[in-house]
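lol ok so funny story. i was supposed to be doing the assay writeup but got distracted and ended up predicting the structure for this chain instead. priorities right. anyway since i did it might as well share w the group, maybe its usefull for someone
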Amino acid sequence: MANAAQKKLAAQNKHILTFMLAADLIVNVLFWILRFFVRSGLSKFSKFVYAFASISSGFLHYQLHRAAAPKYDARGSLLYVGQDLLQEGVTSYMVDYMYFSWILIFLAALTSVKVFAFYLLVPIFVVYKAAPLLKMLLQQLKNFKNQALNQPPQQQQQQQQQQHQQHATPSEPVLSKRQQKLRKKAAKYSRP
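and the output, tada:
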């Protein structure tokens, strides 16, 4: 069977996208039924927050559908597999955000719209995930600065270490690593 892996990925993506569409519809319909027919109505702010949650989740579903939906020709043969929805990275974060939105919408339908305050966790999560990237970016900027000064980072660190050693022990001569190793070996064998 030719392209079995691609066909398997296409079927997997189609299944996941169908599940996402069904879950999105069910959660939103349940919200409307529970909030307007079973419980009291919503304030303007609550409607705004619900609209934000629903529209952002729907937008991400649309983007994932565009990127991952398999495309077939008229005969039914696979033309485009689509992006893997189970891969790590931005796709994973988009799916997680959709699940998070659905959970909050469902909980807001059951309890109170104050549950939407948990959306404040999203920027905290973004900062948590972006901190290592920011640290790496700052290190790269530092390396670029060193390159602009025509000093590689290792050479600059060695110079700083040598200056530190010279200031720390001015009376003792600075020994190379090889000399230090030879002295340790000599001291080891000279002891009876």
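The chain has six helices and two strands. The first strand starts at residue 71 and ends at 72.
back to the writeup now i swear
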